[in-house]
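Example 9 (inverse folding). The structure is encoded as follows.
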């Protein structure tokens, strides 16, 4: 069982920045074997993939955030980050971190999820 806890959400004006963090607890597999990702869900919309980082360090981003958001992990892969710059009102959503030992795509098929942290961007 992997326990994920997000933090760092808040309210910011358009053009501003926020940095989200996600702390991971011990899982049944070594930390380095989990794909880690950020998803978001706005009211009335489906949960969508924002960014992911695979076990080899390769990253993927949704087209809507490329060049503005950066996903990273610490050296132990126990803390996941999402640096969000040039924020737009359409980035407003609940942001979730996710982990999975096998899956690393952009669909919400991850096994483990955090409780979410709200990001609100005003115009």
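The amino acid assigned to each position is listed next.
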């Amino acid at each position: 069982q992997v326990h994920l806890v997000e933090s760092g959400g808040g309210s910011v004006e358009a053009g501003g920045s926020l940095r989200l963090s996600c702390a991971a607890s011990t899982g049944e597999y070594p930390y380095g074997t989990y794909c880690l990702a950020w998803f978001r869900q706005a009211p009335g919309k489906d949960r969508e993939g924002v960014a992911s980082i695979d076990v080899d360090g390769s990253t993927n981003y949704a087209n809507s955030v490329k060049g503005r958001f950066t996903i990273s992990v610490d050296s132990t892969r126990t803390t996941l980050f999402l640096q969000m710059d040039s924020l737009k009102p359409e980035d407003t959503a609940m942001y979730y971190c996710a982990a999975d030992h096998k899956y690393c795509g952009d669909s919400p098929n991850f096994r483990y999820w955090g409780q979410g942290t709200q990001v609100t961007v005003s115009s």
